[in-house]
Amino acid sequence: MEPRPFLEIDGLAKRFPAPAGGAPLTVFEKVSFDIAKGEFVCIIGHSGCGKSTILNILAGLDEASEGAVIMDGTEVSGPSLDRGVVFQNYSLLPWLSALKNVTFGVRARHPDWSKEQVLEHSYKYLEMVGLTQGAEMRKPSQLSGGMRQRVSIARAFAIQPKLLLLDEPFGALDALTRGTIQDELIRVWSGSDQTVFMITHDVDEAILLADRILLMTNGPYARVAESVVVDIPRPRNRAEIVHQPGYYEIRNHLVDFLAVRSREMAGSDKGNPSGMNRPVTVRPALDGGEEDPVEGPGTDNVFSIAR
Amino acid sequence: MAASLRLKAAVVSILLLVFGLGLWEGLTPTVKSAEEMTEYELLMGGADQEARVPPPSDVIGRAWEELSDPFYDNGPNDKGIGIQLAYSLYRVLAGYFLAALIAIPIGFLIGMSPLMYRALDPFIQILRPISPLAWMPLALFIIKDSQASAIFVIFICSIWPMLINTAFGVAGVRRDWVNVARTHELGPLRTAFTVILPAAAPTIVTGMRISIGIAWLVIVAAEMLVGGTGIGYYVWNEWNNLDLTSVIFSILTIGVVGMLLDAAFGRIQRAVQYQE
Predict the structure, then answer these.
(1) Quick check: ipTM above 0.85?
(2) For residues B21 and B248, is the Cβ–Cβ distance under 8 A?
């Protein structure tokens, strides 16, 4: 028997009960995918398809109506330090300095550590995101959006969770800041064996960061339709990645999905009848695009992706 | 710019004060001295039978007298202003801290649990509008001690703003911050102390500030009823003595102490305030 994947999501659904006189609302259903240890996975989809709900379910902050999340062989129920979260709005505690926000997390993770150990560990991660020389003593309100998100990332990495969940971490930042922090995120991530699951709206960001990109169809009845493998070697950086062979094949594939197919496939069950099947794996960067013969459930799902 | 505005405001304040005091002084007819009285006036026992509001110069003179020796004690009806204020402050602070001890934990409970909020809400709604002095007879009967009854009245009047503000502050803590606590696996107690308390602190301290103001308002009335000691009793005692100079002086003292109490809580408020 082949070993179980590190993170297994099986037949996840979120339904809201019918309002008086209406039909029950199914935001998404039959969402199933796996994430391997150390993998960086992004999920893309239009607003309202339930990406954030999926992330909150993974974090244990929300409950699924159906299905299960299994991490490292145990079912996820309730929040845990094994799953760190970075939210779009940073969710720093505004009455604590940047440093105290990080030590807050470290102390929760290692209650047995001495004060010096906690400080040393926290500074290590603050340095990784370039927040030192006095900036770490400031309150979040005295920091720019980019710096706040750096603190948030430092806190999440400092806890060293088994799974790191990022909910559109750069959504509120301007393009220039976003670029620098993306580079920092890659740097911090590549020095660790951290498994990351990240929501984004930005196609280029997803290609730059991810090993694999999950594509969701539009809601209601949204589902994860495809798993796009980013066959671009690491280390990557923003300036050079656009010259990599295959970059535009991947990009076009994603844009086409978001612009056309996410709508066409919405609500349909095409290719995923049982709910337990994994999404179709697509590798646009490889010659002409080919479907993974092992995981592809049927010929229905062959899309012409070489354009 | 800000400094010059403050300076201008101070100048206007002083001008208003001088003008007001001058008007008061000017409108108060001076009692003629005995030599200047006509024979008729002397026969009638003085120029004016009507007691008059004393001029500010008298009040300032009395203030100087009282404040230069605030802690003298010549028996039950003649104590220095410092002693009277100390009694009042002791009662206010005792009742107030007892109230805080009960209001803040219960406020936490109500703020955290919608069930308790609904269950306790009718009691709070009925008890809150009761004038604290209305409790006095019952308190005197049950406690059988006038001192303790005054403290009870302070307790009952300062409990509501603290209770309601704590509940409001706790219930309004941003979901994100509670989620931070949850994802960090903090226990309920650590969540309460490290996340919810600091997050709700500005609202809680606002409630405490309102409460101390009300307590200081109520203590004067309570001491007028209870008697014996305290600034409220002092005001009433001087009224009975028909010493209006002392009445006016003590009214001003009540104002100044109330302002100082409020300023102290203003400082605490600034200390716990955070910017999102």
Answers:
(1) no
(2) no
